[in-house]
Amino acid sequence: MKILYIGSTSACLEIENQNPYYTPETYTVYLDNQEVLTGDTNVFSLFDLRRDTEYSVIVRFSSEKEETVRFRTAAETCCINVRDFGAVGDGVTEDTHAIQSAICLMPEGGRLYFPAGTYWTLPLTLKSHITLELSENAVILGMTERDRYPIIPGFVKDMETGEDIPFGGFEGNEVPAYQALLYASYAKDITVVGKGRIDGNGQNGDWWGDFQSFPAARPRVFFCNRTKNVVFHGITLANSPSWHMHPFFSKNISFLDCAFSAPKDSPNTDAIDPESCDGVNIIGCRFSVGDDCIAVKSGKIGMARKYRTPADHHTIRNCLMEFGHGGVTLGSEAAAGIRNLSVTQCYFHATDRGLRIKSRRGRGKDSFITNVLFDNIRMDRVLTPLVINMWYNCVDPDRFTEYVWSREPLPVDDRTPKLGAFTFRNMECTNAEVAACYIDGLPESPIDEVVLENIRISFAKDAKPGIPAMQNFAKERCCLGLYLDNVKHIRIQNVSLQGVAGDKLIVDHCEDIVTEGLEEGE
């Protein structure tokens, strides 16, 4: 077993094996010889622990095999009940001022405890060196009156030096945005733990309506700007007005055993979108949202040139994606680049696309995405398991211009992005519908290398046609095999396809291709 997190009142552990998300056998967990839970997932959590206390944990599997780990919970300076500051938690009384006062007055190293109840609130600002703990059945619920949400500028000018002081942004630009329900800026050592829920209440306001006419970008449930050492453990996040979690130019951010929920038709309700961050861990989380489950970003070209901060050192492991446009997405706002990212032991069910990389002309020469590994993946009912699309046509004002859609090689200049090496291996994908693999590079900037190794993909008998990648003049496909265009080097080894309509391998504009064991399944 691996210890992922030890706090003052909670712990998160990971059972090491090769299965995506679920353990090979069920297990029972004993805490100091007392049975506390049974489970079948690779990541599990313990709550309601005592601070600064030694514990012994035994995991006994159905085969009678046992694993034991010991740890000591963290110390803390104090624990304060939010109701002692006047919070009511009845879902009717506004609790903003009571909660914010408690946060502001907390000693360093203290824990603010939310007992069961619904805490109706406007946005709250977090500070360094504190923990928020939401007990089971405790809910922080966002209020719906948009005109009462503060608008945070993307940046302001230092009054003496004229230097830009950044505070936030949205969709790759430093733009004004409504303050997130939980907001942190230039802070560190923040923890949010427990079995409770943080609910953006997006469905009951006008956040999901005509948001294009709003004077600022919609809020997120959580936004942190230039923070360090942030942990969310065990919390359920739901119904955000837009993206749920948006770490921004931050370091050492972890989401452990959290759940994310929003209706399938809720607009732009991505679960976790880290932007220009270094050291993001997303482990043991569950997703069902209205857009991408995870979308790693590094800004559009203006912000990238200004700060030159790529997304780096991201780990996504043992997660369950149950619905979303993309399970794990890179881009498209990736103008400062993405590097050193791994996605392992994840299970995707009923997402539109599984592993999705998207870019386009105009992201710039610093938009270099490389050293990306997808390994040990299970998918079912994913329409298109693998997508690399350098013709993405959403978000930007010039999305429908010839510059974006022209298939002729254009001059390579400061606006031209580049994709490096991608490895997809040890994958089993059942009941696909649109395409097994759709990889479409730029003629003037072909993808360096794609490796497909130990992969089995089968199509559903009732497969329906659809669009594999969001691009201009896209054609509907159904049961398309491996499609690769404008890729320099292709390595295909031990790949099996079942139910393909037409050629199992379609390759164009490739310098060299090596295939070993590309088979048509029965």
Concise synopsis of the structure shown:
The protein is 4% helix and 49% strand. It contains 3 helices and 46 strands.
Textual characterization of the structure:
Strand 6 (54-61) and strand 7 (66-72) form a beta hairpin. The strands form 7 sheets. The protein has a 24-stranded parallel sheet that branches. The chain has a 7-stranded parallel sheet with strand order 30-33-36-38-41-43-45, with no helix packed on it. The protein starts with a strand and ends with a strand. The chain is mainly beta. The mean pLDDT is 96. It is globular and about 65 Å long.
Give a quick set of tags describing it:
mainly beta; seven-stranded parallel beta sheet; 4% helix; globular
Total of helices:
3
Helix content: under 10%
| Mean pLDDT across every amino acid position | 96
Strand content: over 45%
**How is the biggest beta sheet arranged?**
24 strands, parallel
Shape: globular
Radius of gyration computed on alpha carbons:
23 Å
Which SSEs are present, and which pair or pack?
Elements: E1 2-6, E2 11-14, E3 22-31, E4 34-41, E5 43-46, E6 54-61, E7 66-72, E8 78-81, E9 90-94, H1 96-105, E10 110-114, E11 117-121, E12 124-125, E13 130-134, E14 138-142, E15 151-152, E16 155-157, E17 164-166, E18 177-178, E19 182-185, E20 188-194, E21 197-199, E22 222-225, E23 228-233, E24 236-238, E25 245-248, E26 251-256, E27 259-261, E28 278-283, E29 286-288, E30 294-296, H2 301-307, E31 311-317, E32 320-323, E33 326-330, E34 338-344, E35 347-349, E36 353-358, E37 368-380, E38 384-389, H3 402-405, E39 418-419, E40 421-432, E41 435-440, E42 447-459, E43 480-485, E44 487-498, E45 505-508, E46 512-520
Parallel strand pairs: 8-10, 9-11, 10-13, 11-14, 12-19, 13-20, 14-21, 19-22, 20-23, 21-24, 22-25, 23-26, 24-27, 26-28, 27-29, 28-31, 29-32, 30-33, 31-34, 32-35, 33-36, 34-37, 35-37, 36-38, 37-39, 37-40, 38-41, 40-42, 41-43, 42-44, 43-45, 44-46
Antiparallel strand pairs: 1-2, 2-5, 3-4, 3-6, 6-7, 15-18, 16-17
